[in-house]
Amino acid sequence: AIPPALAHARADFPILQRSVHGKPLVYLDNAASTQKPQVVIDAVTRYYANENANIHRGVHLLSTEATGAYETARGKIATFINAADDSEIVYTRGATESVNLVAHSFVEPKLQAGDEILISAMEHHANIVPWQLLCERVGAKLKVIPVTDDCDLDLTHFDELLNEKTKLLSLVYVSNAIGTVNDIAPLLAKAKAKGIPTLVDAAQAIQHMPIDVQQLGCDFLVASGHKIYGPTGIGILYGRRSLLDGMRPYQGGGDMIAHVAFEGSTFKEPPSRFEAGTPHIEGAIGLGAAVDYLSGIGLQAIHDYESDLIAYAVAKLQQIEGLTIVGNPRLRSGAISFTMGDAHPHDIGTVLDTEGVAIRSGHHCCEPLMKRLGVPATARASFSLYNTPADVDALAAALKKTAILFM
Ligand code: PMP
């Protein structure tokens, strides 16, 4: 049953009314990017129609209003993840830029040859490649927590992997490829006990479950706006204020400086220090509206509803002959990956598209994980608050047609 808080959610998303190839759209590519509710579209439109001006520098009314909207959105995001202060939210282009910011401004200045950065085999490339590049620059080592056949973290050697050489523990909360939910709080606590800073990649978590950064105890957390019903090109870095205070700038330019002279420049306090140049103003405002929308429904309600939906989808997909669900994690959120015999996942995706069902196929920016699980690629259905059991039924029906074609 659909709980009252979510009963009308579909109607909030205008794009869900359209059809593709003459069939009603069944959108199951939410891990890549979610659709936008009317309130987010309206917030962006209202900004351009009424408030558009550059922020922070103007004394005129439009600039003051735009600055107010931009900063109010920051406060909403801080509240959304229970940051201790608004200044702990840095706007970025997305999760990817947030990781790169931490690599450049926090880790690199302290990293020496022989030091280690600890990640897992379940990471998105965005939480692998920035560390690889950094380790190459410095002569440090990237260490990897393995995953089990079911695609849970294999913590057998965690205590040895997390050692005095470790300069950062950076972990994905929810796997975009398989849907594994990692029980990260105890791992973050172990790192904290050893004085090792931590980063949580919450790109696939923050839209599916309540997140409280103070309760989690992480030092940094990254997420992308476009995956949580907000605009593209905006994301966040949460950073503990005491750490942000000690960090060097990420990029140089306007708005991040206190004073500029040819003899040397000084920089603003966080978060401005990390927001050089004119930012994605309407993106931030749209993200604020998305966060309002999510809070209005309630993350616990979303979590409970989506959990039931995913359990229903797993059960339904298991009944399809020739279909294999890849990974069997203890806890799952957001995504289900599968293969069908020798059918190429791109071909599965193409046939589903003709039925109006949008899924994703490929390595999902997780090539090392795919290698570990022994598949070159998978087809992935990923869910959001507006999906329904009817969407799952449409997926299953389209997959049965696919099976007849390929098996
Ligand atoms: N981490 C995870 C777990 C993701 O799913 C993604 C996006 N697929 C990213 C990081 C990167 O996000 P973005 O491309 O929006 O920067």
UniProtKB/TrEMBL annotation:
GO terms for biological process: cysteine metabolic process. Belongs to the class-V pyridoxal-phosphate-dependent aminotransferase family. Csd subfamily. It catalyses: (sulfur carrier)-H + L-cysteine = (sulfur carrier)-SH + L-alanine. The keyword Transferase applies. It comes from the Bacteria. Its cofactor is pyridoxal 5'-phosphate. It is an enzyme of class 2 (transferase). Gene3D superfamilies: Aspartate Aminotransferase, domain 1, Type I PLP-dependent aspartate aminotransferase-like (Major domain). One of its GO terms (molecular function) is cysteine desulfurase activity. InterPro entries: Aminotrans_V_dom, Aminotrans_V_PyrdxlP_BS, Cys_dSase_SufS, PyrdxlP-dep_Trfase, PyrdxlP-dep_Trfase_major, PyrdxlP-dep_Trfase_small. This is Cysteine desulfurase. Residues 26-395 form the Aminotransferase class V domain. It holds the Pfam family Aminotran_5. PANTHER family: CYSTEINE DESULFURASE, CYSTEINE DESULFURASE 1, CHLOROPLASTIC. Keywords: Pyridoxal phosphate, Transferase. Its EC number is 2.8.1.7. Catalyzes the removal of elemental sulfur and selenium atoms from L-cysteine, L-cystine, L-selenocysteine, and L-selenocystine to produce L-alanine. The keyword Nucleus does not apply.
